[in-house]
User: What shape does this take?
Amino acid sequence: MIAHDAAQGSPEWFLARLGIPTASRFSELLTSQGKPSASQTGYMYELLAEQMAGTPEESFSNAWMERGNELEPMAREYYEIQTGLTVEQSGFVTTDDRSAGGSPDGLTPTGGIEIKCPKRANHIAYLLGGKCPAKYTQQVQGLMWIFERDHWDFVSYHPEMPAQLIVRVDRDDKWIGAFVDELYKFNDKLAKARQKLGLK
Assistant: This one.
């Protein structure tokens, strides 16, 4: 792994991510069921555009996403109190060959955490489901691959609710194997497209 010491959201952080697949977008490569995603081509064009322009694609942000960023430290503290584990914050990290990267919400001595601070209705849905929602499977499993961990904890936190959710997700080597195969196929297409566009 290669760590990039840059604050999340900083220009240096965006530069480190530029033009490579990142964990929050791994769903664009492979579905949670282990099948190639129909979104691959569009995502490849987005990465190529980022690299050609030298700046990241304009990111979508709304009130809920901004609220989530504000509540994340509270959720992290709640997790530490409930589990007795110390959470270490990490910047953006890439694989040694820079084939992919990710920014975890936190690392524990043996795993990591993915924090979501959703609106109330979604929080209730997560509580009733009692597991990591399928739409976050790729991100969580991908981070386990990048950071070489055997488990990751999914946290759903809402300050107005008396109940919060902390569930452990175990590493799925079969899914990760399929993902890595698909990632390198995708990166091969990406490299050929870069060459055609005259990009390094």
Q: What stands out?
A: The first strand starts at residue 2 and ends at 4.
